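To whoever is covering the structure queue this week,

Two jobs came back overnight. Logging them here so there's a record in the thread.

Job A:
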Amino acid sequence: MKIKRPPIVESVSDFVEHVMGWTRGGERPVAFRGEQYTGWQTQPKVFRPDVGLYEHEKNAVRDLISIHPQEFQEDETMFDRLVRMQHFELPTRLLDVSTNPLVALYFATAEYKLNGKAEDGKVQALFLPEERQRYYDSDRVSCMANLANFTADEKREMAKAYRLNRTDFNKHPVVRRLLWFVRIEKPHFEPQIDPRHLQQPVFVKPKMSNRRIIAQSGAFLIYGARRLSNTQVDTDLRLSRATVPAGRKAEIRNQLERLGIHASSLFPEIDKAAGFVVSRYKNSGV
């Protein structure tokens, strides 16, 4: 069987043509993600072995809140806090995506070298059914976000509990602890969690509460389990991919800049804007 290779993106117009043709069963992508290196797995940063934070996720979350409590005063839920932590570049169980494909293309054009060799980037289009799409205040999102409050041992216990039926699962001590965290946000939450719902990533529409999310048309995939159980395959999440050649990254980024997609527009903080201004004149050759 011949494996179909991802299309190659040579220009912005080329990319737009690919995007317009991306459909699955008549459905359009719910979001897009750009990565500067094709060799990376698509997963939240906290799950990556090289980051080394998964075993210490609970403490990392608390450390950041402890150091900067004022930054989190207005956050009502654990999901809100994870979004803010992601903004401050703490690895979390959230995966950044955008509903704007050109934003994803911008991130795919960032330079990346491996052993001195410039590497290709990629843009992925994500397809998920409506039942796997949620808003920021969803019960399912609350359950998944609050897994960040678990110790490494508790997460291992939860991984074992996923094998139980729904009734026994909700009686398990580690699940009762999860319920305790969720009820801080939602006092009337009932113990009726479907274990499958914690294992499958969900697309989340966040509050447009910070300038960067607005500028990047930002959204998230939230992950519960680090990996699916051996008996489960996620047949709902589908990806289409395009490759951005290393040799075309600079020109494509220049084209995006002419369309208003650049560091200053996507990162509205003043330090990012200043960096963009400096790079513009540095690269002008004057």
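Job B:
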Amino acid sequence: MNIEKLEKHPHLVPEIAEMLQAQWSDLTRWSSASEIAERLARRNSGLNKEFTLLILADDGRVSGTVSVMLYELNDIQERQYWLGEVFTPLAYRGRGIATQLIKAGIEQCRQFGISHLYLYTPDQQALYRKLGWHEIEQRQVSGEQVSVMQLTLHP
């Protein structure tokens, strides 16, 4: 399994959009597969520092994703780059795929010169703490209590 940029596999945008929509359809931002596909296509145009990474299994199936996007929560201007859309289909869970993708996303951000990354999660704080993230606030996002976490990147 290799980590690759989604921009090299644009034909997978609809499949990934469907996966994300199925996982988080109760949240407004992920309730429409077509809107997710539009965001993925725009984010992976290669025109800025936003991107999506994926891992393809040997049979060509998507076995995980991670994205870095601008202003996922846009109420605090200094919080520019956000890690999100960390997803592993059920059949591939428990293999460390999400951790591999998160680490690869962080490394790509370092290469881009991004100094801080943010994320929010309702229930994966322990995973992110193991990877060096720390909680900076609790808040409501789409009616759900989440932890906002930060990672300071060093060159």
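Note for Job B: The mean pLDDT is 92.

Please reply-all if you pick these up so we don't duplicate work.
Q.
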